[in-house]
Each structure stands twice: as structure tokens, then as C-alpha cells.
Amino acid sequence: MSQFLHWVWGTITDNDTHRKYSFRGSLRQNVLVATYEIERNPSALDVGSFTLCLDFDGERLEGRYAWIDRQKRDVDSGKYEWERLH
Fold first, then answer.
1. Average pLDDT score over residue span 12-39
2. Torsions phi, psi for 72 (to 5 deg)
3. Measured at the alpha carbon of residue 33, what is the angle toward residues 45 and 16, in degrees to the nearest 5?
4. Cα 24–chain centre separation
5. For the purposes of burial, counting CB atoms within 10 Å of the CB of 43, is it exposed (0-12), middle (13-18) or buried (19 or more)?
């Protein structure tokens, strides 16, 4: 993840599918809001968004993400957590 002022961007790797996604968004106080799309194929319907809040100790971002379920052609969502790597 990279940051300049309140803008953030980076890469997400899905460990189950080994797909890589690029994301971009903004960080305001302790809230990160971003969108993502599959890397190297921005026209694919493999897109989504997430909103995460930083916890009190600054070690974890927790929230929800939403994506397009390609098979059902519907929006789905789930719990999302990021942990700081040391």
C-alpha cells in the first residue's frame, strides 16, 4: 500500500484464487474507502469496493467489502480485515 496525503493505492492478492487486484481510495482520519478491479484487465466485471476503520491500537483495519457476483449478476458483501505486517 502506498499513500500520498489522504490518497492511497496498492495491490490486493486473493490467496484462494491467486488473482491480483489494484485498488485506490482515500483515508480520512481512521476510515479507508476504496474501489478495486482486477489487475491488467480493467474491463472485466471483477470489481468491488470496501470501507475499513482503523482499530484503536493501529494494527488492524476492519469493515466490509462489496463485489459483483458474476454468476448471479448481483451485488454481494462480506466482512473484511487487514492486519499490519511487521
1. 92
2. -90, -10
3. 50
4. 8
5. exposed
Instruction: Give Cα separations from 3 to 24, 67, 78 (angstroms).
Output: 10, 24, 25
User: First CA to last CA across the chain, in angstroms?
Assistant: 14
Ranges 39-43, 44-48, 49-53, 67-71: which has the least confidence: 39-43
Radius of gyration of the chain (CA): 13
CA pair distance 82, 52, nearest whole angstrom: 9
C-alpha–C-alpha distance, residues 57 and 5, integer Å: 21
| Cell of residue 57, nine digits | 491500537
CB 77 within 8 A of CB 66: yes
Q: What percent of the chain has pLDDT over 70?
A: 97
Among candidates 63, 61, 65, 60, which has minimal Cα distance to 76? 65
Q: Which amino acid is at 14?
A: D
